[in-house]
Amino acid sequence: MSRLAGKVAVITGGGGEIGSETAKLFVQEGAKVLLVDIDEGKCKRIVGEIGGDAVSYFTADVTKPADVQAYVQAAVDRYGGIDVFLDNAGIVGDVAPTHDFSIENFEKVMAINVVAVFVGLKYVIPVMIGRGGGSCILSSSILGVRGTPGLTAYTTSKHALLGMMRVAAIEYGPFNVRVNCINPGPLESGMMRHIEKGVAPIATMAMGVEVTAEQIYALFVERTPLRHYGTVKDVAPVMLFLASDDSRHCTGHFFLADGGMSA
Ligand SMILES: NC(=O)c1ccc[n+]([C@@H]2O[C@H](COP(=O)([O-])OP(=O)(O)OC[C@H]3O[C@@H](n4cnc5c(N)ncnc54)[C@H](O)[C@@H]3O)[C@@H](O)[C@H]2O)c1
Description:
The chain is of the alpha/beta class and 263 residues long. The protein has a single domain, classed as NAD(P)-binding Rossmann-like Domain (Rossmann fold, 3-Layer(aba) Sandwich). It contains eight helices and seven strands, in the order E-H-E-H-E-H-E-H-E-H-E-H-H-H-E. The protein has helices spanning 17-28, 40-50, 65-79, 103-131, 152-172, 190-207, 213-222, 232-243, and strands at 8-12, 32-37, 55-59, 84-87, 134-139, 177-184, 254-257. The chain starts with 7 loop residues before the first strand and ends in a 6-residue tail after the last strand. Bound molecules: nicotinamide-adenine-dinucleotide. Nicotinamide-adenine-dinucleotide (NAD) is lined by residues 13, 15-19, 37-39, 42, 60-63, 88-91, 112, 139, 141, 184, 186-187, 189-192.
């Protein structure tokens, strides 16, 4: 299949678990992909794994506007423009009840998960308009539509992306630039192991009996109607849908890939 033939995709957090799996699928579907990440080692490995000349990387800290401008320019110089922008780099931050949550960590999560996503849109959208349109996908989460104890900064940040997405979709629809959110549920990943470990003591405190990280994992499966703990392979095809012309009439919306957990 070549649902992205001739398209150029930029993926921030491209060295991470979701970003790299999506990059593999995008390349298989005919796209040229620029991975953007602060971690050069991860990007090098993924570019090596994918092979060929359809993928390359750019090392950048997405919280630095000059770095954002530089990765946008790199995509233009190497591939001629940007058609698909997966604005995906993100962190969980601390896991702690709101009254114990550090202000510094809250600000750090917002800087990466919200401000940097906005700066990405700010510099990518004009390039897309110059090319006649494009698709922007913001990595929100099931925690963009519901809450969970211990994750005030992360949950706030993922809710914020829905507002950012809606405004940009309205502003740039007339220019054929679509903006949507992808909202995965828990996925087998380092990020979720960090969350399960952090949520366990908070659940222990709330319930008065010891709750382990393994029990939190089991609870997530129990609360998922499809009874499957998601994986990056469950999400990458949704990214492909949003990136491709199959979703040409979809903008300003969020797309849950959560096994029904939020239902
Ligand atoms: N893993 C899940 O279960 C899950 C569920 C819902 C949403 N998400 C969201 O999907 C996105 C990707 O998650 P993932 O599981 O691939 O995480 P990950 O930790 O594997 O990947 C995130 C990547 O972002 C990069 N990054 C962090 N700070 C950066 C910065 N300042 N500049 C540039 N790069 C930076 C990291 O180096 C890492 O490679 C995140 O926004 C996350 O919140 C993940």
